[in-house]
Design goal:
- The protein folds into three domains: 81 residues, Arc Repressor Mutant, subunit A; 95 residues, Periplasmic binding protein-like II (D-Maltodextrin-Binding Protein, domain 2, 3-Layer(aba) Sandwich), CATH 3.40.190.10; 102 residues, D-Maltodextrin-Binding Protein, domain 2, CATH 3.40.190.10.
- Helix content is 41%, strand content 24%.
- It contains nine helices and twelve strands.
- Helix 1 crosses helix 2, helix 1 crosses helix 4 and helix 2 packs across helix 3.
- The longest helix has 26 residues.
- The two termini are 34 Å apart.
């Protein structure tokens, strides 16, 4: 029987690049280097003598042939993951306890719900903390896994793409910026601004964007939680920014997209190297990959 020309890792590479259109972002999702991802895509094209992508900087678009095979390959990958998921659900992982740490509760809560449906006899403990604290807990072995934005590589940890989110602006109803459909960074100039506490990744990411754009704000409050920021904005004390998946709708707050700047962040599942092969870690990783 002839050896298949298309491997699972190549299908994963193709689907990731089709989704992100960026070799850098697709490689980050898969935990690969960019050269490795480029090689996998090139192998597919060379093996079949076909061009699947129109290569442009950060906008690698599918050709007509690429668009034709994408749903087939996505379905194949989904079927394979579902099969692996079923097998894992019936493996040796039956009882026990897993302790995870996370920054944001919303996505992690949905994940825990799915995990519990498959492994009802496994107790899940969750600690919520800042990104820096979560990383420290994973590195020290105090938790089995963590969910946070990885800012720099740690040789003792492995990261796996969980989801991507954007920073969005919160504007009080009646504020001068409330009438705008979208905001630019320049719109924030000299505005009363409500910041997160030092060490917050949201604060660091947005402060960096403001500095790069040479935009200054009037930072009047520094608050330590999403809930307190939401209430302060609702009371009309100023504007702020949050992750789009963390905001709970409020009748006195308008959410505005921020355009002209890349404020996307990738949240990852992070596991220490010595925990990667444990049944509980494998179960958690499989749930993340199937989400």
């Amino acid at each position: 029987m002839p050896r298949p020309l298309l491997t699972i890792s190549q299908i994963e590479a193709f689907c990731a690049l089709a989704r992100h259109k960026s070799f850098k972002q697709a490689a980050g999702q898969l935990g690969l280097s960019q050269p490795s991802l480029i090689h996998k895509i090139s192998q597919i094209e060379e093996n079949y003598g076909a061009r699947l992508f129109i290569r442009q900087r950060n906008n690698n678009r599918l050709t007509a042939l690429g668009l034709a095979v994408l749903p087939k390959l996505q379905a194949s990958l989904a079927s394979l993951r579902e099969a692996e998921f079923i097998l894992l659900a019936h493996s040796q992982v039956e009882t026990g306890e897993i302790h995870i740490a996370a920054v944001s509760p919303y996505r992690v809560s949905l994940l825990i719900k799915r995990f519990h449906a498959l492994y009802p006899n496994i107790k899940v403990r969750v600690t919520f903390a800042s990104s820096e604290r979560v990383e420290a807990l994973v590195a020290s072995g105090d938790v089995d896994a963590g969910f946070f934005v990885v800012r720099s590589a740690n040789p003792g940890l492995q990261s796996f793409f969980f989801y991507q989110y954007q920073l969005v602006a919160l504007v009080p109803v009646g504020h001068p910026l409330a009438g705008k459909a979208q905001l630019m960074l320049s719109d924030f100039a000299n505005q009363d601004f409500i910041s997160r506490e030092p060490g917050s990744l949201t604060r660091e990411r947005f402060d960096e964007a403001l500095r790069n754009a040479d935009v200054g704000v009037n930072a009047i409050y520094e608050l330590g939680s999403r809930e307190s920021i939401r209430e302060a904005v609702a009371q009309g004390l100023g504007i702020s920014v949050v992750a789009d998946d963390e905001h709970v709708p409020h009748e006195r707050i308008q959410v505005k997209q921020i355009v002209g700047v890349d404020l996307a962040q990738n949240s990852s599942l992070v596991i220490a190297n010595d925990q990667l092969t444990t049944p509980l870690s494998k179960a958690l990783l499989q749930v993340v990959n199937s989400a």
